[in-house]
Amino acid sequence: MPFYEYRCDACGHGFEALQKISDEPLKHCPACEAPQLRKLVSAAGFRLKGQGWYETDFKSGSKKNLAEGSPDSGSSASAASCGTGCACH
């Protein structure tokens, strides 16, 4: 279940609430009881980092298991294939 951020327009109280996607948005502020809560849009609270499913899933051939030292894991070889000299691969 995701966390949603809320802020009260009446008192300015801000908080996060753990809710199902299908739940109705909250309406009453827990601090002042005013029915003036607004659901805020915020960035995701997680980051994919390190070795994991995203590193190897949906890849084929020599692109699998890049973190285990395959020939394509070096930044100089990848940058050469890009053609711009960047380290984007």
Descriptive labels:
2 helices, three-stranded antiparallel sheet, alpha+beta, elongated, 89 residues, Regulatory-like protein, 13% helix
Structure description:
- This protein has a 3-stranded antiparallel β-sheet, with no helix packed on it.
- Strand 1 and strand 2 form a beta hairpin.
- It has 2 helices and 3 strands, in the order βββαα.
- The chain is an alpha+beta fold and 89 residues long.
- It has a domain at 3-40.
- The protein has helices at residues 53-56, 75-82, and strands at residues 3-8, 14-18, 37-40.
- It is elongated and about 60 Å long.
Low-confidence runs (pLDDT<50, min 5 residues)?
Answer: 72-81
> Main beta sheet: strand number and arrangement?
3 strands, antiparallel
The global form is: elongated
Beta-strand portion reads 15-25%
Helix and strand pattern: EEEHH
What is the C-alpha radius of gyration, as a whole number of Å? 22 Å
What distance separates the N and C termini?
A: 33 Å
The oligomeric state of the chains shown is single chain
Helix- and strand-based class? alpha+beta
Helical segment count: 2
**Could you tell me the mean pLDDT?**
73
What share of the residues lie within helices? 10-25%
Structure summary, number of beta strands? 3
Biased composition (Low complexity): 73-89
Domain Putative regulatory protein FmdB zinc ribbon: 1-42
Region (Disordered): 57-89
InterPro entries: Regulatory_FmdB_Zinc_ribbon
